[in-house]
Amino acid sequence: MTLDLILDVLFRLAIAIAGITGAFMFFGSKAPWLRKCHLIMGASAVILCVATFIVQYT
Questions:
Q1: Angstrom distance (rounded) from CA 16 to CA 55
Q2: Longest dimension (CA), the chain
Q3: Residue 24: which of 38, 41, 9, 4 has the closest Cα?
Q4: Are residues 14 and 39 in contact, defined by beta-carbon separation less than 8 angstroms?
Q5: Local structure of 6: helix, strand or coil
Q6: Computed from CA positions of residues 7, 47, 16, 35, in that sequence, does the dihedral angle turn out positive or negative?
Q7: Which residues contact 37 (CB under 8 A, 6 or more apart)?
Q8: What sections of 1-58 are H helices per DSSP?
């Protein structure tokens, strides 16, 4: 596996987890760990997006 493929898979996983936790929060879950997980996955997705861009286009 190449680095860009690994970064792409991790990026997609972070987006999926952020979407799932966001849906749980939308439907009324008030668990504090869920909010933290959502924020961490969102931040991870942004970082992985930038890293993927740098690896693929430089």
A1: 22
A2: 43
A3: 38
A4: no
A5: helix
A6: positive
A7: 17, 21
A8: 3-26, 32-57
The DSSP element (H or E) to which 58 belongs, if any, is: none
Task: State both tokens at 33.
Answer: 């760990």
Give pLDDT tens digits for 3-57. 889 999 999 999 999 999 999 999 998 899 999 999 999 999 999 999 999 998 8
Q: Are 21 and 41 in contact (CB under 8 A)?
A: yes
Amino acid at 45: A
The pair of three-digit structure tokens given for residue 50, joined into one six-digit string? 């930038």
Q: Packing angle between helix 32-57 and helix 3-26, nearest 10 degrees?
A: 150
